[in-house]
TrEMBL record:
It comes from the Bacteria. Coiled coil: none annotated. The modification N6-carboxylysine is found at residue 140. Keywords: Hydrolase, Metal-binding. The lineage of its organism: Bacteria, Bacillati, Actinomycetota, Actinomycetes, Pseudonocardiales. This is Phosphotriesterase-related protein. It holds the Pfam family PTE. Belongs to the metallo-dependent hydrolases superfamily. Phosphotriesterase family. PROSITE patterns: PHOSPHOTRIESTERASE_2.
Amino acid sequence: MTVMSGMSGMTEMPGMVRTVLGDIPPEHLGVCDAHDHLFLRSPMLPGQELDDPAAALGELTAFAAAGGNAVAQWTPWGMGRRMADLPELSRRSGTHIVAATGLHQARHYDAAELARLRDSLAEMFVHELTEAETRAGMIKVAGAFHHLDHHTRHVMAAAAHAHHATDAPIGIHLEGGTAALDALDVLCGTHGVAPHRVLLGHVHRFPDPAIHRQAAETGAFLVFDGPSRAHHGTDWRLMDSLAALVDAGHAHQVLLGGDTVTANARSTADGPGMSFLLTGLRPRVERELGADVATAIFVRNPARAFAVNWRDTLH
């Protein structure tokens, strides 16, 4: 598949995207919400669980009606992913779903359970990517605010090991959008992960153009997500951030996602939800940055970011 003709830094991207219904060619992924949640549960978010398959189907159906074809669910292991429900949701909504393995911050888990898993994380990630009944297509890790704590570094080491065994991309939850360069230094510098296999999530929450540019210069993908998160107060800076990256020649590394984490944030409730990416943001990207940039962000870039030359050997 030839992508982004006429834009710098683009090459043919081989591999397959692993969805919950099986592997598909990257060019079949289509219009993609590159970071969202259909299901999510955490003791840190009491009463805010996303745990209703019917509501998830309604949100996917609304997204598809707006022109969406694919959603990457970044909910990792142990946070109520409902992996067994994802294939049927994909079939019924007609949308591709890329699921995640990996771990979030330690505070989202029982300490005894984390201790039990400590020495087998890489094996668990590889199993979920290559052998599970419903397979993940990416690995999720998470940083702390302005730093990488011991838990993060341990999970990143396991994620890097699993990446080298499978080639699966690694998505990073950047707390408050911070520590992007630290995360790249650990994953890419210490553990040898190629930067173009890394997706930096929540970069919009720390809208520093110099940091964005430095991260993009490594080759990593930058994921601007969370129009459902009004309390972050950074949506109004989104277009400036995107324009700065496009002007610097990094249009081929930008992704957009909804990051819907509460029921009220869904389009079928009171929030913008997944469909807002296509009914609200995409038209504005087209108007201000051009149709080719919009197609790159929503179609060509996700196809490259999630395409994998799959391997299944843990060394």
